C-alpha cells in the first residue's frame, strides 16, 4: 500500500530506545502452554494428533528460540501411573506455535501431560516449563455405550387441510375480476410452502391490474370448516400457529458401590440440554451442545463431575429443549417440524479406587416427561414457565417418577457422528445492571440496561399466587417510552412466569436467549415495589477470551470500537449469526465473510471459526456450491460475496494465526467453489447472482444495491483466484499457484474490458462499490488504473463526500482510499457525522452495530421494520482498519501469525493518540502513538521470538525491531488532513 503523506516529520529521531525488563533471578522457563487452538488444560479434547504452542521465557536476554524439546506423558485411566508417549528430542527450530505432536494417535479418555524447554538465540537451555495437561473426549462411536433416548409420544399426526375453494381478485369491480386459485393453494400446501403470501406472483397472475385485491378461501382444518378473507400483501396459513415444544425432562437413579476417584460425564443432544446430578447443575455452559449440520455431526461435551457423586444412591437428570435442532427456524417447513423431537445422549463413567469402571448410560432404564414447569421454550418463541408444575426433587434420588413415561431408544450408529466440541461453549460471561427504571404505562415496568446485548435476565419479583408475569424484550423504545418490537417480525421473543405461591421469586429463562437493551415486566399486582436491582442481565456468548484492545483520543471512535465488540459477542452464539433477536439468527455467510478479520483483533476466535468452517464444508454440495446460511436453511446457494467465505475465511485465518492446518483442511473445498465460478462463466464473467451489495444506501434498485450482480461475481471470482494462488504457495503447491495466477490475470482482463473499458465505468459499474472492488481486488489493468482511480474520487464527490456502499463495498472504503494515497478521505469517511456514516448511528444512541446506516434517526424515527436489526456486525468490518492502520498493528502474510508484523500508524484526522494491543501466539504486541507538545511519541512492543518492521509516518527509513519494548520520539509538524 502507498504510505500516507499527511504529515512532515523531521529527519532527526530524538530518541529510539529499547526498554529492558529487570533480570529474573530464577532460570527462565517457557510459559502459556496451549494445545490445539489455544486451549488451556482442556477436558474433552477432540484431536488425536494435536499441536502445541508456548511462549518464550520472560527474560531481557532472550529474543528468539533456536530449538525446543517436548515430552509427552500419559495415563490410560484415573488410577494408573503416567508413562512416556513421545519425546521430540532436541529439534532445531524457531517454531513455538502449532508444533505438531508426532507420537501415536491419542485415544478416547486418554489423559495427557506435556512440558517443553527451549534453547535461545545464544544457545542457552531453559528450564522445563510447568506441566500442562489435557484429556481426550469420546472420539468416535466405538467409545460410546449409550443410546439416543427421547420421550416416546407415539407417532405425531400432521394437521389435515383441505382447500374447498379459493378466489383472488376484486369482487367489487363490475363485472368482478377474480381468478380461481384453488389449485395454486392446494399445490402450495402439498409442498409445505406455508404461509402463502397474498401477492400476484404466488397466486398465478394479476386478475385485476391496478386494483386492490383480496384472497377468499373456503377450507377445512382437521374436519372443521373455515372461511377467511385476506387483503393483498397479507399471508394465508391454514395451520395452527407453530409454538415451541415444552421442555423434556429425563432422569435415572443409580448406586455408586465404592470410593470414587474420578467421574466423567459425556453428553450430547439433538436439541439443547442442561444436566443435573443429585440436584446440582453440571457445568456452566448454555445452549449445549450447539448448532451443527445435524444430519452429519453433533457435538459432545465432557464434564468432571467427581465432586457431584455420592457413595450410595444418586440420580442424574437432564432438561432438554428444542434448540436449533427441532425449533421453528426461518423457512423451516411445517412437515419437517412435525417429525423432529429432541433427543438425549449421555454416558457417566465412574472410576473406583479399586480400578473398576462403571458406566451409567442413556438407555431404556431412563424415564421422561414433558409435564414440567417449562411449558414452551424456543429461540424465536422465548420461554413460558409455570411454577405450579415444578417437579420438585426430580434430579435427586428417591423421587417418585412412576407417572413419568418410558423412553424410546435409538442406537448410536443410527444417528449422526458424535464428536467432541472443538471450541468453547456458550456461557454467561458478565452481568449488567439497569441504568434506569421507568413506568411508561400503568403496570408496565421498563428496565434500561444502557447496552444492547444478548442473553437472559435474572428477575427477582413479588408475585401473587396464579399471577402471570409477562417479560418482554426490545432493542429500542417508542417515543412514549414503551417497547418497540416491530423489527422482531414474527419472533414472539418473550417469557412468561406463572406463580404457584404468593411471595418473592427469582426466575431466569434457561432454554432460550434474547437480544435486547430493555426488559419490560407486566402483570405484577405489586410491581410498584420493583427496584432497578430487581433485574440483572446475564450476557451470553461463545466463551472465548478477549484478545485485543483499541483506544484513541476520540470518544466517538472509542464508542465505535465498543459497538463493534458488542456486536461481535452478541452474534457469536455458537455460530456467527447475522442478528440475535428477530426471527432469523442464522449463520449468514456474507456477514461472516466481511467481518472475520476484525473479529480476530477483538477475541480469541480461531477455534470458533475453524469449527464453523467444518460446517461450511459439511454443507457444501457435491458440485461445490455453498449455501447462503450455515448450517443451511432453505435460502438457496452460491451468492457472490457470501459463498466466497469458504475461500476468504481460511486465508484470513492463516494470516492471523500462521497455522497451515486451516488451509490444508479447507483447500479442496476452496478449489471446488472456485470451480463453480469457472463452470458458470462465459469469458471469465460468471452468471451467478445473489444478495448483491446488500442494503446500499440511496439505492435506485432494491435492497441488493445498484452494483451489477455479474460485476460482483466477477470481482469475487478474481479475488478468490488470487487467494487460491497465495494459499497454494503457502502449501507448497507451485503448479496450482501458477494456474491460479494465470486465472486471476485472465479475470482482470475480462473485468476491465466489460466494466471499465478505456477507464470508463459501464452501466452497473457506476457505483462506489464497483470501483472499490476493481481497485481493491487488483482487477483493473495497470494502464487504466489512474483513470479508474479518478472515477472513484469523482463518485465520492458526487455522493457529497459520503459513502454509498452496502455490506460488500463498505469494508473496502477506508483501505482503498488509503492505498491510493488519500488517507485524508479514509479519515473523513470514518469521522463523518451525517448519514450515511458510522458516527451517524452513534449520534442516534447506538451501542452496537446496526444493520442499516439509517436503522433509526431522531428526525425520522425507525427504519424499515421488515429488515432492521439494531445488533448486526457487518458494518463493524471497519475495525480492521482501526487496528491495522490507525493504530498501525498489521500482520505480514509472508510471515503469518505475527511471527513478523508491521507497525504502520496512520497519524492524522482529529486524533492525537491511538493504541492497539493484541495477544498473539508469541505474546502481546503493541503499537501506540501520541502527539504531545509538537512531538510524535511512539511505543512498539515486539513479543519474544518475533520481529516487527516500523514504517514511520511520512517515509522515514523503516526499522526492523527485535523482541522488546521500543519507544521513539520524533520532531513533528502537522500538515493537516
Question: Can you put this structure into words, describing what you see?
Answer:
This protein is of the alpha+beta class. The strands form 13 sheets. Strands 22, 28, 29, 32, 33, 34, 35, 38, 39, 40 and 41 form an 11-stranded mixed sheet that branches. Mean pLDDT is 94; it is low at 1-25. Helices cover 20% and strands 33% of the residues. It is globular and about 80 Å long. It folds into 6 domains: 7-21 and 885-974, Sandwich (Maltose phosphorylase, domain 3), CATH 2.60.420.10; 32-138, Sandwich (Immunoglobulin-like), CATH 2.60.40.10; 148-154 and 243-334 and 341-380 and 389-421, Galactose-binding domain-like (Jelly Rolls); 160-171 and 178-189 and 215-239, no CATH class; 427-542, Galactose-binding domain-like (Jelly Rolls), CATH 2.60.120; 548-884, Alpha/alpha barrel (Glycosyltransferase). A hairpin with an 8-residue loop joins strand 49 and strand 50. The relative contact order is 0.10. Keywords: Hydrolase, Signal. Residues 259-430 form the Bacterial alpha-L-rhamnosidase N-terminal domain. This is alpha-L-rhamnosidase. Pfam families: Bac_rhamnosid, Bac_rhamnosid6H, Bac_rhamnosid_C, Bac_rhamnosid_N, Ig_Rha78A_N. Residues 888-959 form the Alpha-L-rhamnosidase C-terminal domain.
